[in-house]
Amino acid sequence: MPRVRPVRFGVVLLPEFRWSAARSLWRRVEELGFDHAWTYDHLAWRSMRDETWFGAVPFLTAGAVVTDRIRLGTLVASPNFRHPVPFARELVTLDDISGGRLTLGIGAGGHGWDAVMLGQDPWSASERAERFAEFVEVLDRMLREPEVSFDGRFYVAVDARTYPGCVQAPRIPFAVAATGGRGMHLAASYGSTWVTTGDLGPEGSLLGVDEGVKVVRAQMDRLDESCVAIGRDPRSVDRLVLTGPRLDAGLTSLDAFDEVAGRYAEAGVTDLVVHWPRPAAPYRGDGEIFERIFAEVCSRRTPR
Question: Which domains does the chain have, with CATH numbers?
């Protein structure tokens, strides 16, 4: 039987913290031993639309300034309100400030506030998929090449520059969120990591570990097929599971979390991400239990 690799652990901090609190929180995340930390990238988000919500790139930049080791990223950015040309400039800057610790999590976007806040009508599922494919293609070129011109259906770039380019070579790594065939193809073609939240059903009712692993296994089988179809070794793509929206992370105790992490690792998941506990929904949790869990599980692992 092949050896199960230890899973890496990540945490999502919603961009809701003023700097007076965020400074120490970013540092605490690194002290606990997390491998990576993420934030959501929205103009406004669901039930928190009228609450404190800061920009993702400045929030991550601030985190980069007060940490030294941990990788940072969006989970996920989308075309809903972003154009790849100015976004690439922001990413190059963040990659430089972080010393090459940035991972770009990207997805097709959904029907939230971001989809209409700039005055556009909501896009159909097919248009979101088409826009996402073009968005990823342009970003890939913008982050690899110093000068880019592109004339697509949705995006145009005219002699766009990204000097001095990325710290990381050949570019900032992409973590591509995908469940459908078109998205899986993009993950296989462009991603160093594939991202899933599990089931596509409505949020609120969390799948337990048995059902969650079953869903994720089926999705990873489709990812493997997409890799093989383009001649890529499926083992070269990391697999990141974001718990919380639809998958239960087992954050009630150390034993419960060990069970969840072990089962996903056995299934082939390389990275498991949780949300920093909040005092109220969404992602309500006990901060003391959370810190005890991750102080223990992170201390057991040999960094890799």
Answer: 8-300 (3.20.20.30)
Over the stretch 31-61, which tens digit does the pLDDT of each residue have? 999 999 999 999 999 999 999 999 999 999 9
- Which residue shows structure tokens 């494919």? 133
120-129 contacts: CB < 8 A, separation 24 or more? 128/79, 129/180, 129/182, 129/183
Distances (CA, A) of 163 to 148, 171, 186, 225, 297: 11, 13, 26, 37, 41
The torsion of the CA quartet 295, 271, 77, 188, rounded to 10 degrees, works out to 170
Torsion of CA 110, 116, 120, 123, to 10 degrees: 20
Write out the two tokens for 23: 């400074």
The count of C-alpha atoms lying within 13 angstroms of the C-alpha of 154, restricted to the half-sphere facing its C-beta, is 20
pLDDT (tens digit, 9 = 90+) per residue, 83-104?
999 999 999 999 999 999 999 9
